Amino acid sequence: MTTRNYADWLKAYLKYAEATEAPQHMHFWSVVSAVAGALRRKVWIDQAYFKWYPNFYIVLVAPPGIVSKSTTVGIAMDLLRKVPGIHFGPDVVTWQSLVERFASITEAFEYQSEYHPMSAMTLESSEFGNLLDPQDKGMIDLMVALWDAKQGGFDKSTKSSGNDVVENPWINLIACTTPSWINGNFPEYMIGGGFTSRTIFVYADQKAKFIAYPGLEVAKDLKEQQEKLVADLTQISALTGEYKLTDRAVEWGREWYKHHYSHRPANLDMDHFGGYIARKQVQMHKLAMVLAASSSDELLITEENLQVADYMITDLEPDLRFVFQRIGQPETTAHIEKFVEFVHAAGEAGVEYAAAYQHVHALFPSLREFEDMVAGCIKAGYISITQRNGGAIVRAGKAAVPKSSARDETGRRRHGALLS
């Protein structure tokens, strides 16, 4: 292997993408998908009975128009598309399109004087709903099976090409969506199910900074940086073989495993996140391979790789409630929370009753429904009403904003602290 341009490719990428408004953790997971897409099925961690491969299902989740999700993903994927030999999947995933694409990209790589077939692709979508239908049980079941990248293959009949045989399929996915789309398309039973438990959900609801004209903020040598990043990513794509853990990494991993199953996280209930908790060890080692590949051609995972991987995954967990909070809730619950947030935002001055009603009139067109909602909020302590100059003033009550919409700042966005 030749000397790389950057000692740590991932850190170099975060510097390259810094003239954007998205939070750093969204850039981090976007570029994780790019490195995974370059590694493909050519590297692994061998566990005798099975292997762990560095593929991910990553979904960026944010309200529309806030953090430029698709642009953030696109910056990383544009680099990956410039790497020779990388295959991208169809824009819309169906049985037929997926199998046909797999069959057309089957190739082999050499390792220990033997040739190993693989069918590896990355899926990128700016709108998750356009890529995959959560209600298509057969398709979802297939995606669940593909995440594990088990040895072997499958065949499927398609109208255009008859029987297609897929050898050693491997799939890597990154997509974008909004909390409201998840609420409208993911039934409650799917929260703990096979697909969501294998997916890394990356949430944000605020810009990291305001950049009106990115073209004026980028480094003058941006094109040169891009070329160097692509060159290094191409070198990463050539890595082949089994990743080994150092003795210290194994020791740390054993202690982590014992603690993980002895201390359940208080913010993740087992009914909804039991599957995610069970697969966290796998996700951590997948990410450790990406981190190791970003800084060295040596197929070795260190204690630090595992620690950073655990840190970055765990730091996403408090936000999972914002990804799934609306599922199973009546629509009026969200309307009430918006109303309470509006009143609390007004501070001590409060809001005139008429103005408060105008703010949510479209949500409560019936005055009776609005009055019933206000009465309920008063009883719950969220708001209070006083008279002033002959008019009613709505003020924040002693109770805090409903928990499902309140963003506590404890430990907010520590992402990147170990990467800077």
Quick structural gist:
The chain is an alpha/beta fold and 420 residues long.
Architecture overview:
- This protein has 420 residues and is of the alpha/beta class.
- Helix content is 45%, strand content 18%.
- It is built from 17 helices and 15 strands.
- The protein has helices at 9-16, 24-39, 69-81, 95-105, 128-131, 137-147, 179-185, 194-197, 214-217, 222-236, 247-262, 270-295, 303-314, 320-324, 331-345, 353-359, 367-380, and strands at 43-46, 51-52, 57-61, 107-111, 114-125, 153-158, 162-167, 169-177, 199-203, 241-242, 244-245, 300-301, 351-352, 383-388, 391-396.
- A 5-stranded mixed sheet has the order 4-5-8-3-9. Strands 2-1-10 form a 3-stranded mixed sheet. A 3-stranded antiparallel sheet has the order 13-15-14.
- A hairpin with a 4-residue loop joins strand 1 (43-46) and strand 2 (51-52).
- The protein is elongated and about 90 Å long.
**Portion in strands:** 15-25%
- Look at the helices and sheets and give the structural class: alpha/beta
Helix count, per DSSP? 17
Radius of gyration, taken over Cα atoms and rounded to an integer in Å: 24 Å
Cα-to-Cα separation, first versus last residue:
26 Å
The number of strands is 15
> Low-confidence runs (pLDDT<50, min 5 residues)?
404-414
Shape: elongated
Let me know the largest β-sheet.
5 strands, mixed
Order of the strands making up the biggest sheet: 4-5-8-3-9
Helix content: 40-55%
The chain-level mean pLDDT equals 87
